[in-house]
Amino acid sequence: MSVFSYAKKYKKQLILGPAFKLMEAIFELTLPLFMAYLIDSGIREKNISMVYAATLYMLGLSILGLLCVLVCQYYAAVASQGFGTELRLAVVKKITQFSHTEIDEFGSDTFLTRTINDVNQLQLALAMLIRLVIRAPFLSIGSIVMAFTINTSMGFIFLLTVPIFSFILYILMSKTVPKYQQVLSSIDELNTITSEQLTGVKVIRAFANEKKMEDKSAEVIEKLANRYIDMTKLSALMSPLTLFMTNMIIALILWVGDINVSVGQLQTGDIVALINYMLQLLAALIVVANLVTIFVRAFSAKKRVEEILNTTPKVQTQPLDKVLPFESENTLSFQDVSFHYPSSSQDVLKKIQFDLKKGTQLGIVGPSSQDVLKKIQFDLKKGTQLGIVGPTGSGKTTLIELIQKFYLPTDGTIFLDNMNLLDLTTGEVRHSISYVSQKSVLFSGTIESNLKMGFPNATEKDCWRALEWADCLEFVDDLSMSTAENGTNFSGGQRQRLAIARALISQPSILILDDALSALDYKTDLAIRQTLARLDFIKNSIIVSQRISSVKEADHLIVLNQGEIVAQGTHQNLMKQSIFYQQIVTSQEKEDN
């Protein structure tokens, strides 16, 4: 899809805007003729009435030109701002439809640059398209034509000016455009650094790394500044070169004009008109050069924005069609499921270096893919609680994200309520499942607005009931209590409990807690797990944790290590049969003591 398809509803402005600008250009081309007439027939002949008449005509044309400019500017503003608004909304809507795969491939920081900076460049390009694309070429050609009508030899001087000036512009533009691409790259890099530092400011301060991060930022900022300066140095040559060329050509016009005046082929007013036309021609050529710069930038922005708009999500986000009944014996089944993350954003080969001598045979071996999960297989029966444990990086969170259709498995099949997950819409899947992630995210607003994200039609009674289930009543006394961005006015444990309440308010069939009890003390952890066990609407709960105490009461435990299930069963069975599980338990008991 082309980005300019979002400008279709502004056809009126796209047609009338340039038309009014063309009329203004016609009036502007006519003014030097009246100026010549005023000088030759009015001032030189001392004809006062002719001076007044020519002055009134020029004033009238100037007023009409001004009105045309105002109308054109209005249409340009309406079209460009409307186009930018609709395009930006489309980009944001598309980004919200992306699955985790596309977000990983693009990187979240580039979305900000493309949504704001790139769309602004396209807005500017459309505004300039309406205001100047017809006017500037028309003035250039019109000035040359008018020069020929005044004097043929002068017309050839005008004609010769265009290729000389165009060559200078070409040299400058060919050097400037690549440098602008480097500037865009540096802006993306600066956005990434800034985002990282704002997100991890507490970690930076905890390790007293402020100076190191300041130096890192300074390095990126300095690189951006140097690239801007390099680009600006070249752009700055435009003004002196143009001024020099303008003065040289005006001097040539005056010299040739003086000869023609002396032989009676030109009059004084014609010389003044020719100088005005030359100034119009050079000004129009400079505008054309600036337009080229704007459109080159817009072309780069267009490709970046269209890359988002034309990307088809691996997982299509769809509305709720129906609620899953969960009548089958197995609520969830993994059948030989493997998964690896897309490698497009990472180097497939990293610093490979070798020499192959003539006459030798080279063999290359290695794993076919870097699977994060490998041949995962288990069945979760209705009414049971599943615990998933394993060291950091073992694939616990990835497994949970596959259940919610954030990613699609690379191999194997996932069944939810005895139906292939691929055949279910995201609405059906995510309406049936409530998920609390490792990082409890709260949004600026109130307790009530955050809770209703999980169930928009919730009543006040529903909100208080969910808060009670999540053990939040000790610190929440009013649903209108404000929540800061990211919930920074609550402790880590309070944020986790509010996130659990938000997940419970819709009374989901499956509740997933992905290390969502890690910030709670053992007493609160136990109380919430006991409450969850009593809730009848939860057909299955899945608790992911590194803390054995949070999952040992589960009906079934899965132990992951390096993406593989190394053991599964109850806590008691695993303590007898799995050495790996025993090591985890022993290490945590030592830490607790």
TrEMBL record:
Keyword Transmembrane helix included in the entry's annotation: yes
Keyword annotations: ATP-binding, Cell membrane, Membrane, Nucleotide-binding, Transmembrane, Transmembrane helix, Transport
Gene Ontology cellular component annotations, sorted alphabetically: plasma membrane
Gene3D superfamilies linked to this entry: ABC transporter type 1, transmembrane domain, P-loop containing nucleotide triphosphate hydrolases
Domain ABC transmembrane type-1: start-end pairs: 15-297
Keyword Ion transport carried by entry: no
GO MF, one example: ATP binding
Cellular localization per UniProt: Cell membrane
InterPro entries in UniProt: AAA+_ATPase, ABC1_TM_dom, ABC1_TM_sf, ABC_transporter-like_ATP-bd, ABC_transporter-like_CS, P-loop_NTPase, Type_1_exporter
Signal peptide per UniProt: none
Family matches, as Pfam families: ABC_membrane, ABC_tran
Membrane topology reported for the UniProt record: Multi-pass membrane protein
Name of this protein: ATP-binding protein
Domain ABC transporter: 343-587
Residue ranges crossing the lipid bilayer per the database entry: 20-39, 51-78, 124-148, 154-172, 236-257, 277-299
Protein's organism: Vagococcus teuberi
SUPFAM superfamilies named among the record's database cross-references: ABC transporter transmembrane region (SSF90123), P-loop containing nucleoside triphosphate hydrolases (SSF52540)
